[in-house]
Amino acid sequence: MNVELWMWLAVCAGIIVMLLVDLFAHRKAHEISLREAALWSAFWVATGVGFGVLIWNSFGEEYGQQYFAGFVIEKSLAIDNVFIWALIFAAFSVPRKYQHRVLFLGVLGALIFRGIFIALGSVILENFAWVLYLFAAFLIYTGIHMLIKRNEHSDPTQGRFYKWFSARVPSVKKFYGQRLFVRIGGTLFATPLLLVLVLVEFTDIIFAVDSIPAIFAVTSESFLVFTANAFALLGLRAMYFLLADLMHRFIYLKVGLALVLVWVGIKMGLHDFVKVPSGLSLTVILTILMAAIVASLIVSRNKEVVHAEPAHKQEFPEATEAEIAELKPLWRRSVRM
Q: Which residues form a coiled coil (predicted)?
């Protein structure tokens, strides 16, 4: 696949423009309605699919199928992120109107980290082809582990990373609007929103450890790996507001994701012996995920709604307008003598 430099630059520029449009559209803190989330979700999915059609027409059926296989894998694994985000927001009692800003910055950071991971992965695989077998074994192990632990949920406030970070960063116990930092007196403090953002970024890095090897199992083209990741991540914020309150319905989603990871792990491990067509791989992935989603919706149709709640939920009040007005500027200006 011959991808010229201008194509990379055009895609990156397009992603930046779309991020800016999204930021401008949600520049004011407000609760995202179900209708708004549905419209934005449809827009981002259409954008990702449209880019896939462009790849298909420009580079051929094989690369088009590889892109769509990667896009479906990343989009599906991203849904698991939604559940973790819901737990994090619940653990810190983040008002719904502030959640979009955290997710926007979280996805922006995720795009940067994923780009770094993809570049490193491409270099490693190009120079050490045997690493593919390690990736394959890791994916199979991760899929089996996910299947066994599918009903277990960690408490975001009890993780080692959060305890380490919160112990070293002075913070206030109130939300000051969408601010991540505030200066009170002469001291700079983090707000609870920064702690939430750091956790969101940290969990995405953990998820990337699974998702990047998974997409390399269906395509070795760095351009397809990056764009499939990017377009899957761009719609993740809207997907959160669309699905966060419905996660109790997707009871077999982790089973489907686990089977997909095992499938792509087996495919990657046998790549030197059995050539699995991209079309067949895409069909298997779609079949597994659709079966998991349909079965989930049917079985959970009449079940009582039970939302997972962290055991150590923290409550943070919102600062009053008077308290916000008393804040000092974040950056001190030098005083000329």
A: none
- Residue 203 neighbours by CB under 8 Å, 6+ apart: 81, 84, 85, 88
Region of residue 128 (left: phi > 0; alpha: psi -120 to 50; beta: else): beta
Question: Helices (DSSP H) in the chain: which residue ranges?
Answer: 5-25, 34-59, 61-91, 96-127, 131-148, 160-168, 192-216, 222-234, 236-243, 253-269, 278-299, 321-325
Give Cα 221 distance to the centre of its chain: 21
pLDDT (mean) for 148-155 = 73
- Residue 40 to residues 25, 26, 95, 192, 231, Cα–Cα distance (Å): 11, 11, 20, 27, 13
Nearest-angstrom CA–CA distance, 235 and 73? 14
What pairing do the DSSP bridges indicate for beta strands 181-184 and 187-190?
A: antiparallel
Query: Tell me, what DSSP letter sits at residue 1?
Result: -
Report the range of poorest mean pLDDT among 102-111, 227-236, 252-261, 305-314.
305-314
d(CA 59, CA 71): 16
Q: What is the pTM of this model?
A: 0.83
Going by C-alpha positions, the residue among 88, 85, 80, 103 that lies closest to residue 156 is: 88
Q: What's the DSSP call for residue 95?
A: -
pLDDT digits (tens, 9 = 90+) for 62-83: 999 999 999 998 888 877 777 7
Exposure of 225 in the CB half-sphere (CA atoms within 13 A): 22
pLDDT band at 334 (very low <50, low <70, confident <90, very high): very low
pLDDT at 26 over 80: no
The least confident of 135-144, 225-234, 319-328 is 319-328
Block residue for tokens 């079949």: 287
The DSSP call for residue 171 is: B
